[in-house]
Amino acid sequence: MYTLYYMPGACSRAIHALLNELDVPVELVDRNQTDHFDHVNPMGQVPVLVDGDLVLREGVAIILYLLEKHNSAMLPAQQPARARFLQQLLFANATMHPAYGRLFFISQAITNEAAQKEAYEKAGAMISNLWATVEQHLERNRFMCGETPTVVDMMLAVYANWGELFPVDIQLGPNVKALVERVHAHPAFARAVQIEEAQQQAV
Description:
- By secondary structure, the protein is of the alpha+beta class.
- It has two domains: 2-74 and 188-202, Glutaredoxin, CATH 3.40.30; 81-186, Glutathione S-transferase Yfyf (Class Pi), Chain A, domain 2 (Up-down Bundle).
- The chain is 59% helix and 8% strand.
- The chain contains eight helices and four strands; from the N terminus they run E-H-E-H-E-E-H-H-H-H-H-H.
- Strands 2-1-3-4 form a four-stranded mixed β-sheet.
- Helix 6 crosses helix 7 (174-185).
């Protein structure tokens, strides 16, 4: 059985949904309820996946490990479909995620109200531009990699909710909003949300 260290609503939710999609058992451990989490990950971040003696602490490494280990069709075997999937995966992880990360940095590091407002506006505009490229891509595709959902869509659906945590105006187009709705209705993702919320209520 896998062990997944997570935080409610964090990017670890996409990994949780992926594990559900793969239909493999997993023990969920809330990072906030874990003593000495720095022993698990010195950087203090989730997700962390434990598989026996193997401990993986980077989201993309976890995703590729799971997809390859379970021979999932989500990771195409042939080129150029494989390259397209990897490009979308890295867009979500290395472009969209850090853009939202700026919002968390601003909230913690900038205390001057005027400076913080300006920083939020610039960060929000940058994120809106990224979503505009997603909006355009979705004019030709139901999901980011075609007609069926992948972990890329799950990642983007998680990020899309983060804008509500900050006083920032992020523009999501109708195609993006429809994508997020489809992902939230997808059984593997919906189950991840339900389980995580139930665990929080039990604390």
